[in-house]
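Chapter review: from sequence to fold.
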Amino acid sequence: MTATVRQLALSEIPVIGIGGLGRGGAGTTAVIAEAIRRASEQVGFFYVKDHGIPPALRERALSQARTFFALPDAAKREVQVNRRHRGYIPIGDARMYGKGHPDLKESFKWGLELPASDPEVMAGRPLMGPNQWPATPPGLRGALYDWFTAVMACGDRILGAIAVSLGLEESFFAASYRKPLSRGGIIHYPAQGPQSPADQFGVAPHTDYGCLTLLWQDDTGGLQVKGRGGDWIAATPIDDSFVINIGDLLARWSNERFVSTPHRVVNASGRDRYSMVVFHDPHGDTLVDPRDMALPEGMAPLHPPVRVSDYIAGRFAEAFTYKS
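The C-alpha cell string follows.
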C-alpha cells in the first residue's frame, strides 16, 4: 500500500466519555448528547470511553475468538455461513461492491438468538433465527453472546443520547429495538505482505449498512477513516475504547444530518489483527423515515421510507458470495 495515511488527530475523531449516560441526570445526558451530535454530523466516527463493559468480558471473548480462528479450515467450515448471515465466512467470500479483490479477512457472525419456533422465524423473516455455533471451542458461544449482550446494551445508551441530540425523546429508538437485527462478528485479518497490490484491503473502502456500529479493535492498528478532504486518517487504537460509527440507515433517518463515512482496513503491521464488532440495528420491519426525526422547519425529507430488513439484505447480496 503506497497511499499516504495521516495519523489521527483527536479533534477529527473525538473521544467521548459516556459514563454519565443514564446516571448523571438530564443535564449530563444533554452534554454527552451534544458531543455525540457534533461528531456524528462532522465526522460520522467517534470513540467512546467509560462504557461500563468489563475488560474481562472482552478478553474472554477475544481468547475464544483466537482459538476458533486457529482451528483447521475444515473445522471452521463445519459452520459455514448460512442464508441468515450466521456462521463462518472464509477468506475470499467477502468482496465489497465493485472492488477488484476479495477482502483479506475471515470472520464468524451471529445475531439475536431466536428459536426456529419463533413466529417471525417461521414466517421466514430475513436475517432472523437461531445461530449456528461450532462445537469447538466449547466456550465460544457463551463468551461471544455475553459480550454481544453487553455491547448491545451500550449501544442502546448511545442511541438514547443520539435521540436527545436530535431533539427527540430519549426513548425514541426503544420500540424499534424490541427484536433487533443486531449482528455480532469476530474478525481475523492476516498480515498483508509488503508486495500486496495497492487495491488489496483487509476490508475495502465502504460505509456500514445499518444504524450504529460498535467496534473493538486490538492494538495492531489498520482501521482508516476517510477525511472530509479525501485523505485517509488512521483511527489509532485507544485502550479500553470502542470506535463508534454512523451507518447508512441512521444517516437516512436523520435526513443526512449525520454522516455515514467511508472506512477501510489495511493490516500492514506484519502480524495478525483481531477485532470484534456489533452492528446494532432495529427490528427488520422498522420503517426508516426521515419525517419521524422532527425535521427542522423548511427541511424536506431527502429519502423515501425504507424497511430495515430490505435495505440490509440488499446490501448483503452485493457484498457476499452467498445469498442472504
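Two observations follow directly from the output. The chain has one domain: 5-319. The longest strand covers residues 273-280.
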